[in-house]
Amino acid sequence: MATKIRLARGGSKKRPFYSIVATDSRMPRDGRFLEKLGTYNPLLPKDSEDRVKMNIERVKYWLDQGAQPTDRIARFLEAAGERSKPTRANMKKAVPGKKAQERAEQRAAKAAEANAEEAPAEE
């Protein structure tokens, strides 16, 4: 069975509250789960101790059993010091899209033409 450690949403509309659960990866997000491992309340301040609560021993057990944490859970474990932080390198993040690159090339060409026209006029 492919198990995951992920968030299950609770709370009312526009007031999210999440449970950290170990579940079969084929189950729906808020569906059946194997064990509740903790809670996450995103409405609390980031420095609050009650924002993320986890039973670390049980989380370690499920990780030893082969459960894969989601990205958000992996970050919680990094903050708790239970996992090492992998390098996240998104090299394409700062590269503009095709249209933006084309517009930049056109602007550069126009600027080069304008500079070429101005240079002989000064002499």
Relevant terms:
single chain; 123 residues; alpha+beta; 3 helices
Description:
This protein has helices at residues 56-64, 71-80, 98-122; strands at residues 3-12, 15-24, 35-40, 52-54, 68-69. A five-stranded mixed sheet has the order 4-3-2-1-5. The model has no long low-confidence stretch (mean pLDDT 89). The radius of gyration is 25 Å and the shape is elongated. The chain is α+β, with helices and mostly antiparallel strands and 123 residues long. A hairpin with a 2-residue loop joins strand 1 (3-12) and strand 2 (15-24). The termini are far apart. The protein is built from three helices and five strands, in the order ββββαβαα.
List the helices and strands and how they pair.
Blueprint: E1 3-12, E2 15-24, E3 35-40, E4 52-54, H1 56-64, E5 68-69, H2 71-80, H3 98-122
Parallel strand pairs: 1-5
Antiparallel strand pairs: 1-2, 2-3, 3-4
* Shape category: elongated
Strand content: 25-35%
Main β sheet profile? 5 strands, mixed
Helix content: 25-40%
Strand order of the largest sheet: 4-3-2-1-5
Mean pLDDT: 89
The count of DSSP E runs of length 2 or more, i.e. the number of strands, is 5
Low-pLDDT residue spans? none
N- to C-terminal distance: 79 Å
Helix-and-strand structural type? alpha+beta
Element order: H for helix, E for strand:
EEEEHEHH
> Could you tell me the radius of gyration in angstroms?
25 Å
- Counting H and I runs of at least 4 residues, what is the number of helices? 3
